Amino acid sequence: xxxxxxxxxxxxxxxxxxxxxxxxxxxxxxxxxxxxxxxxxxxxxxxxxxxxxxxxxxxxxxxxxxxxxxxxxxxxxxxxxxxxxxxxxxxxxxxxxxxxxxxxxxxxxxxxxxxxxxxxxxxxxxxxxxxxxxxxxxxxxxxxxxxxxxxxxxxxxxxxxxxxxxxxxxxxxxxxxxxxxxxxxxxxxxxxxxxxxxxxxxxxxxxxxxxxxxxxxxxxxxxxxxxxxxxxxxxxxxxxxxxxxxxxxxxxxxxxxxxxxxxxxxxxxxxxxxxxxxxxxxxxxxxxxxxxxxxxxxxxxxxxxxxxxxxxxxxxxxxxxxxxxxxxxxxxxxxxxxxxxxxxxxxxxxxxxxxxxxxxxxxxxxxxxxxxxxxxxxxxxxxxxxxxxxxxxxxxxxxxxxxxxxxxxxxxxxxxxxxxxxxxxxxxxxxxxxxxxxxxxxxxxxxxxxxxxxxxxxxxxxxxxxxxxxxxxxxxxxxxxxxxxxxxxxxxxxxxxxxxxxxxxxxxxxxxxxxxxxxxxxxxxxxxxxxxxxxxxxxxxxxxxxxxxxxxxxxxxxxxxxxxxxxxxxxxxxxxxxxxxxxxxxxxxxxxxxxxxxxxxxxxxxxxxxxxxxxxxxxxxxxxxxxxxxxxxxxxxxxxxxxxxxxxxxxxxxxxxxxxxxxxxxxxxxxxx
Amino acid sequence: xxxxxxxxxxxxxxxxxxxxxxxxxxxxxxxxxxxxxxxxxxxxxxxxxxxxxxxxxxxxxxxxxxxxxxxxxxxxxxxxxxxxxxxxxxxxxxxxxxxxxxxxxxxxxxxxxxxxxxxxxxxxxxxxxxxxxxxxxxxxxxxxxxxxxxxxxxxxxxxxxxxxxxxxxxxxxxxxxxxxxxxxxxxxxxxxxxxxxxxxxxxxxxxxxxxxxxxxxxxxxxxxxxxxxxxxxxxxxxxxxxxxxxxxxxxxxxxxxxxxxxxxxxxxxxxxxxxxxxxxxxxxxxxxxxxxxxxxxxxxxxxxxxxxxxxxxxxxxxxxxxxxxxxxxxxxxxxxxxxxxxxxxxxxxxxxxxxxxxxxxxxxxxxxxxxxxxxxxxxxxxxxxxxxxxxxxxxxxxxxxxxxxxxxxxxxxxxxxxxxxxxxxxxxxxxxxxxx
Lengths: 673, 436
Known about the structure:
The complex is a heterodimer of chains A (673) and B (436).
Chain A: H1 2-7, H2 14-25, H3 28-32, H4 36-41, H5 46-59, E1 79-82, E2 88-90, H6 97-106, E3 113-116, E4 121-124, H7 127-138, H8 179-194, H9 219-222, H10 252-260, H11 286-299, H12 312-315, E5 331-337, E6 343-348, E7 354-359, E8 363-368, E9 374-379, E10 384-389, E11 397-402, E12 405-410, H13 416-425, H14 438-443, E13 445-449, E14 454-458, E15 465-468, E16 474-478, E17 487-491, E18 496-499, E19 508-513, E20 519-524, E21 527-532, E22 537-543, E23 549-554, E24 560-565, E25 569-574, E26 583-586, E27 592-597, E28 603-608, E29 613-619, E30 629-636, E31 647-652, E32 659-663, E33 667-672
Antiparallel strand pairs in A: 1-2, 3-4, 5-33, 6-7, 7-8, 8-9, 10-11, 11-12, 12-14, 13-14, 15-16, 16-17, 17-18, 19-20, 20-21, 21-22, 23-24, 24-25, 25-26, 27-28, 28-29, 29-30, 31-32, 32-33
Helix pairs in contact in A: 5-7
Chain B: E1 14-20, E2 34-37, H1 42-56, E3 65-69, E4 72-73, H2 78-85, E5 93-99, E6 105-106, E7 110-111, E8 116-120, E9 127-131, E10 136-141, E11 144-150, E12 156-163, E13 169-176, E14 180-187, E15 196-199, E16 202-205, E17 211-216, E18 222-227, E19 231-236, E20 263-265, E21 269-272, E22 278-282, E23 288-293, E24 297-302, E25 308-313, E26 318-324, E27 330-335, E28 340-343, E29 355-357, E30 364-369, E31 376-381, E32 386-390, E33 398-400, E34 407-413, E35 417-422, E36 426-431
Parallel strand pairs in B: 1-5, 11-15, 16-20
Antiparallel strand pairs in B: 1-2, 3-4, 3-5, 6-36, 7-36, 8-9, 9-10, 10-11, 12-13, 13-14, 14-16, 17-18, 18-19, 19-21, 22-23, 23-24, 24-25, 26-27, 27-28, 28-29, 30-31, 31-32, 32-33, 34-35, 35-36
């Protein structure tokens, strides 16, 4: 047992060693009593005790500071040593043997107490410490956690060998830095310092590169912010081979035709055939070509094109669905047949019961809208250019222009009272218009026409259009060739004629009265002029920017005008906005012959020589901040072309969303909703 | 029971059917169930029934039949019909057959001098037509004109028989585009070789524009008229108690035949409310007038108060209206589109039509309910066709397209004939239509 103790000198700290020495000397017998029960009972507490004792050892520094000197040096002294401050530590009064015996007899735990000579104090051993001591006495490892029979970890790789090559532990040289290596390091360091070794070598340019490769993808080029790769020359093809296939070789005729071409259109390279490479001559344009290529690269300004990906559908204006804009004319249900020539003009009676038409065959007809029955026919004898119902429902008379005459016809409708009035109105008492200014009488004369029992206004030029004033008394006629007297105003009740006191710039085409105010629109070939009739001055000039205006119509509210042109364009003017068109619609491939507004529905239409009529939704809002809404609705087909003319006139029914179209095929069609 | 006439022995499906009918004895077939191919349509079924009838009566003449399954007319093959309606083909199918509603005879046309614009067949003894030459004509039968009503200065737009039951003399009213209505009296019984010229006994003036439509009260003492001046005027028909008949001989009588007295009448009252031409009026009940107008509305007027009770807006111009059908309450109207619409005003919130028939291809000029049966009506259209309709099927029962041009008017006559007139200036009578 003593031998065992002495074998582990390093593992036991000095305190323990001294304890052990004390055990050896003093309490030997007490420790020999092996209290099995005690050990078992306290085994649960053992770990805690270990921790506590360890920590106490670490924290509490030995008070005695004499160090590791033999204690017998202080045997006879009154102090056992010195504390940290250097003061003497006095020896305590030692118990005599009798006292200690009595104490051991009284206190069952007294056997645990041992005397610490070094610090001159009694220490009571903890259970853990006693266990440790017991383990040491048994010759076991002092700590219970230590496993003396740990499984063997084989460090050797037993790949194939049955026996290890060497069971020897790693030699020492493995742990000693190599001298040779350090010599080598010193050598490198010196070389670096002398500059013999360089770390950043300059990169080598690749000797070969892809001539036809994509420049844009090469890294160094794209590093620049705005690098634009030059356009690549065309890749050589089979036709540029020295011995191309026969199909690439042009015939002599083709070569001759190349000579007739323009320089730019001529092919740059004409394939030729050579029997061997030896016989290929030098390329005569080599220098020129490379010069031009360089010139191209140098002079051609290259701009990065910014492509914006926009869905073309999204650029379309958001228009309401056609279904929501019903009713509008869609289908042709009725046809009015009877004319033998192209129908040049139609006019619907204000109540919508009858429709009048004038034709190239020299007749004026009145039709019943509902059934398509022709009620009356007048033989005028000359192609009827224009017909117009009087806008008053109680005055069913019809103005008709044929050649240079304008006839005011009594239709015979209306009750007896109305008929009597009309008959009075259509009587010219004295054919004296000479008392007016002379120039008018030379231009126009009022006659009584016996044949049709009507008034005949004989103009000096061909009348192209007639327009009634809304009150039904005035009527304006337009003679395109009439120069300064091109537009005349006739007053039916007084049988008077006036010249429009304005200078027109350009040939007049058509004229319209404002639907509510005393404003007069004259469409000339290029522009539309708006006159105030009361103040006798020009209010506005609408610049159509069209080649030739063919027709004009005024919105029933009076602030919007549509103008059709001979190049197929339709201009919508909003008079409040500007004198330029608010919208220009190019939909007809041929001349627009007429345009029309509906009186009550938000509809307008245009008809054209391409045998179609277009119906549009044209909503004008009372709110001045809102621009008119124009939606194309329907293309009405059905007329056939005749003499290059298609649909010549179109008019809306005054009360229904119906459209009448007059065609060159001598029929009138009614399109209903 | 297999029928001997049936020859197609292909392996198509067979259905057990039983033919039942409400027809009387000569039309009855034995009610035993038979198996027939499922791909038969109306024609095949009709030939089977004819064969069955022939088996009973050897002198049976072939007759077209129409077939009803669960109250619906069969207009496709039997198989499709069963599939469409979800009827099981396992059970014995009961097929009711009726005599097909189609004209079996076409009378010779009755020629007019001009377009026939109006026809009335409400009297079983004669047909009254109005013509664009301003004359009204009375036809006893096809091609036999008995009376000519002379006096209008413009085209007649509508005619109406006021009382046909009166013994001896019959009163009729005509409306014309010369803004007047005229009332005429004649004896429908007398017939001579030459048509008798009749003059109006009363001229009703008051409209400011063409009169478009006239309808007589059921009792016969009043007529109403719709006109282009947007009003409906009510007139008395009895000539005795009017105060204006003192000035009987008018100066406008240029004819030498002036011995008949001609009185003028004023409108009793005026129903104002329509904003456009009143194109059609009917007076089916004692104090209710229905009117259709170009302002897209159908209105119901109370005659006593002159107020309109209800409006139906249809969105299209209406040209004709008739009231009839089930409980004489359904309104049928046609106009400026090819759709014949039928409304039920008894339903709350009736803006949508209960039936729409769309087989025409142009404007509908006239529509008339059959006066006895509640299912049948006819319509005439500008596409030159007269169609017979049954409410139980969406297809026309039969299409009469003998007219060469637009048909302007059509009516039932004697319960089994259709009379129609049009632009081809002929009155056509298609007779022997079996309406059950």
